[in-house]
Automatic annotation (TrEMBL):
It comes from Araneus ventricosus (Orbweaver spider). This is RNase H type-1 domain-containing protein. GO terms for molecular function: nucleic acid binding; RNA-DNA hybrid ribonuclease activity. It holds the Pfam family RNase_H. InterPro entries: RNaseH-like_sf, RNaseH_domain, RNaseH_sf. Residues 1-86 form the RNase H type-1 domain.
Amino acid sequence: MIAIDMALDFVLEHQLFGEIWILSDSRSVVQYLDNWRDVSDQRGMDIFNKLKTLCNSSVLHLQWIPSHVNLKYNNIADSLAKKGTTMPQAYVEPLTYLELYSRRKAFVNISWRHPPTH
């Protein structure tokens, strides 16, 4: 959700209107945003306010894509995200429940795919 929020900030700041595709390999985030009536946390509300602003001048698409299946742009996005985690940040907001859940789920998925050797 942080990446989507920052991407929407970038689009609004640079006035990149038209057809906008938001692709995410986080199924839980896409489902969360798809159920917009149930969103109650601050980050979710911020995202929806930005989406509402963009709807006036853009066509928006939100789509889930599978991860780790050698999709060119997914691999590029993953490498950029890894680079971004090493950059200093002035302020980091506390993680929401959904963000914590997503990180824990990813960790569990990796541990099931690569069990420890005995």
